[in-house]
Specification:
Pfam families: Glucosamine_iso (PF01182). The chain has 258 residues and is α/β, with parallel strands linked by helices. It has one domain: Rossmann fold (3-Layer(aba) Sandwich). 32% of the residues lie in helices and 16% in strands. The chain starts with a strand and ends in an 8-residue tail after the last helix.
Length: 258
């Protein structure tokens, strides 16, 4: 795992966009995350598309998750959210943007179908991730199997609370989602996790320096052969080995990519 510490959220987003742009230019299959943390990264990628010619026309994209019970065109569905915040502003074809079926009546079959679709695409080349305050990635809440497939999950009360700001009322937040499992996520060739703000400091320390455990689902990144974690100073404040991470970053061989 490579841990990169940057001064502020803007620098985190700029570096993340630089890494993602390198894949997009090659027509990669991208794994996209929603939530507040990736927004600045998406804005930078949109800027690169409009002003520096970055094309996504040969890319495919797979979302991490979708609320159960919300149609695709619901304002807070993750499919609609990623369209509004990112993909409708670039040149990726709408048919190349995939999400789990939140209206399915057979969640097991829908999960299997989604994992199969990812495999048939050739697999995800780079998966963008955020991390929740309780260490969840996607909607793999504490207690999730580290080898889990895409499946139905019940949201943790803290996650419902965190996401209530996107809905008119807390009671409107769905309690269930279809989410890529930790096993599905781990099959991506490159995992890119972003975290900003002091509210994520405890989760960052747990995922990077704590034990690999279902108590902190994001700790599964420790087992991945190519995982990059980019954090700002506030999110890095609980890291015990932060000085080494800075040293390793500053002394990276010129030929080594993130």
């Amino acid at each position: 795992m490579e841990i990169l510490i940057r001064p502020d959220p803007e620098d985190v987003a700029a570096l993340a966009a630089q890494i993602l742009a390198g894949y997009a230019g090659d027509g990669a299959t991208l794994g996209l995350a929603t939530g507040s943390t990736p927004l600045a990264t998406y804005q930078e990628l949109i800027r690169l598309h409009h002003h520096e010619g970055l094309s996504f026309s040969k890319c495919q994209a797979f979302l991490l998750d979708e609320y159960v019970g919300l149609p695709r065109d619901h304002e807070q569905s993750y499919y609609r959210t990623i369209r509004r915040e990112f993909t409708e502003h670039i040149d990726i074809d709408d048919s190349a943007v995939h999400s789990p079926d939140g209206l399915t009546e057979d969640s097991d079959a829908a999960g299997r179908a989604y994992d199969e679709a990812i495999q048939q695409s050739g697999g995800v080349d780079i998966q963008l991730l955020g991390v929740g305050t309780n260490g969840h990635i996607g909607f793999n809440e504490p207690g999730s199997s580290l080898s889990s497939p895409t499946r139905l999950k019940t949201l943790h009360p803290q996650t419902v609370k965190d996401n209530a700001r996107f809905f008119e009322r807390a009671a409107d937040v769905p309690r269930h989602v279809l989410t890529q499992g930790l096993g599905t996520i781990s099959r991506a060739r490159h995992l890119l996790l972003l975290a900003t703000g002091e509210g994520k400091a405890q989760a960052v320390a747990a995922l990077a320096e704590g034990p690999v455990s279902a108590r902190c689902p994001a700790s599964v990144l420790q087992l991945h052969p190519h995982a990059t974690v980019i954090v700002d100073e506030a999110a890095a404040q609980n890291l015990q080995d932060s000085e080494y991470y800075r040293y390793a970053d500053a002394n990276k061989p010129h030929w080594q990519r993130h």
